[in-house]
Specification:
Elements: E1 2-6, H1 11-22, E2 26-31, H2 38-44, E3 48-51, E4 67-70, H3 79-87, E5 91-93, H4 94-103, E6 107-112, H5 117-130, E7 136-138, E8 150-151, E9 157-161, E10 166-168, E11 171-174, E12 183-186, H6 200-212, E13 219-223, H7 227-234, E14 240-245, E15 263-265, E16 270-273, E17 276-280, H8 288-303, H9 308-315, E18 326-331, E19 334-339, H10 344-357, E20 363-367, H11 372-376, H12 383-386, E21 392-396, H13 404-407, E22 415-418, H14 421-431, E23 437-441, H15 449-459
Parallel strand pairs: 1-2, 1-4, 2-3, 4-5, 6-9, 6-12, 7-9, 12-13, 13-14, 14-15, 19-23, 20-21, 20-23, 21-22
Antiparallel strand pairs: 7-8, 10-11, 15-16, 16-17, 18-19
Helix pairs in contact: 1-2, 5-8, 5-9, 6-7, 8-9, 14-15
């Protein structure tokens, strides 16, 4: 089969391309403004990439395509999709193609949640792999232990990052309703994606739809500390459930009657099952959020037959994921990190994790509010608190429709706002000194700012 993938440089669609190629299909694709790591992965796989969405592709690289796989970045009015519709050509969504061609008959382990999906999925795939289960996977980032974001395998197990974002312009359901998991992690649930969801209740409804697809013999691994997930499960539960969380009383004051989680993890990594010690997590990632991610992955892997002790041994060698607190380089004593954080909660937990892991240096937070939610300004009021632990804040605000300087005013002189990226780089380099940490946070390419910072530091 010949596939032409629209929006191929997105982490999910790039994973579809990798899996389809390894399954023997001929794959081409197109996207706007491709950037690493996905553009690099596609090049390594030998997948032809066309920049842009010109309808002329139908007479060129895509002229022999049997089906067009359409990513959710593509909307009506896109010249290529309009030409496909006008000519009556076959098209489908990425999640639907994956379900019909890869996931049917598999033991699918799906990782859902507002935060931590990529890291938790990578942890889960790593545990299963080290246990000899040889899982296939599709992850929204590149795990350092595999060096690819997606893998096709002959085993019955498949790990997938289960995104709640909508599927395609013609299918407004969340992607994850297509995956039909036997094991589903509900890692956390907050408001996000303000461009498609009006409120948290609407997202909870989509998570409820996911719960409805888990079979009675399946298992839901749920964050037991969150009222939002408790509300999702209260709407209907037909499967086994295991809850995880912090030791002690449930964390949510909004729902005081939350059941105590069966699995808990303490600040020192000690894991207990109903109060009985079950091992200690040793992992090279910092922060409470990563301890919770790890516990969710361990409990899910246990459902697939991996004992807790084996899972813990596997995570001791887990190396992390590109663009998740990835140390790009240290120049003249200044460490530059790349992180995908773009939601206020993720920004706060990322800074907190770095602060605890590296207590001896200042943190320079370099932020690009690039997600659709951040561009709308929906969460701008939460940014000062999210950035409170940073010593310096540098915000790139060139494409925002709201006043970033006013939003960050509570941080006082610690925060600076720039429309010009080069000016931002100069300010960071002027402020940084040996022993400092420059934490770059964006869910996009950020104009290659990481390389600009490293080059400028080297020349300073």
């Amino acid at each position: 089969m010949r596939l032409h993938i629209l929006g191929i440089c997105g982490s999910f669609m790039g994973g579809i391309a990798a899996i389809a190629t390894r399954a023997g299909h001929a794959v081409t694709g197109c996207d706007a403004n491709p950037y690493p790591p996905m553009s690099t992965q596609l090049e390594t796989l030998g997948i032809g990439l066309t920049e842009g969405f010109d309808a002329a592709q139908l007479a060129g690289v895509a002229r022999d395509a049997d089906v067009f796989v359409v990513g959710n970045v593509v909307s009506r009015g896109n010249p290529l999709i309009e030409a496909i519709l006008d000519r009556g050509l076959a098209y489908t969504s990425g999640p639907q193609w994956l379900q019909e061609n890869v996931l049917t008959g598999k033991w699918v382990l799906a990782v859902a949640g507002t935060h931590g999906k990529t890291t938790t999925s990578a942890m889960l795939a790593h545990i299963l792999d080290r246990a000899g289960l040889d899982p296939g996977f599709l992850i929204g980032g590149v795990p350092l232990d595999f060096d690819v974001s997606a893998r096709l395998a002959d085993s019955p197990y498949f790990v997938i990052e289960a995104d709640e974002y909508d599927t395609a312009f013609f299918d407004k359901r969340s992607k994850f309703v297509h995956y039909r998991p036997r094991t589903a992690i509900l890692n956390n649930l907050e408001f996000d994606h303000a461009d498609i969801f009006p409120d948290l209740a609407a997202i909870e409804t989509q998570f409820h739809h996911l719960v409805r697809t888990v079979p009675g013999t399946g298992r839901i691994v749920a964050n037991g500390d969150q009222a939002s997930i408790a509300r999702v499960l209260a709407r209907g539960l037909w499967s086994e459930v295991e809850r995880f969380g912090a030791p002690g009383p449930a964390q949510s004051s909004a729902v005081p009657s939350l059941p105590a989680p069966e699995w808990t993890i303490a600040d020192d990594g000690a894991i207990a099952q109903r109060g009985t010690p079950a091992g200690v997590l040793q992992i090279g990632l910092s922060g409470r959020h990563n301890r919770m991610n790890a516990l969710a992955a361990l409990v899910a892997a246990r459902h697939a037959g991996v004992p807790m002790a084996a899972g813990l041994a596997a995570l001791a060698s887990f190396r992390g994921v590109r663009r998740r607190m990835e140390l790009r380089a240290t120049v003249k004593g200044v460490a530059v990190y790349d992180d995908f954080a773009h939601h206020p909660t993720a920004i706060a937990t990322t800074i907190d994790g770095l602060r605890k892991a590296q207590p001896g240096g200042r943190i320079h937070a370099v932020l690009e509010p690039r997600s659709n939610t951040m561009k709308l300004g929906t969460m701008k009021a939460a940014l000062p608190d999210a950035l409170a632990q940073a010593d310096r804040v540098y915000c790139h605000a060139a494409s925002l429709g709201w006043d970033a300087a006013s939003a960050l005013a509570p941080l006082g002189t610690r925060a600076q706002v720039f429309d010009d990226l080069d000016a931002l780089v100069r300010a960071v380099v002027a402020d940084a000194r040996a022993g400092d940490h420059v934490l770059v946070m964006s869910n996009g390419g950020f104009g290659g700012v990481h390389g600009k910072l490293l080059d400028a530091l080297a020349g300073a």
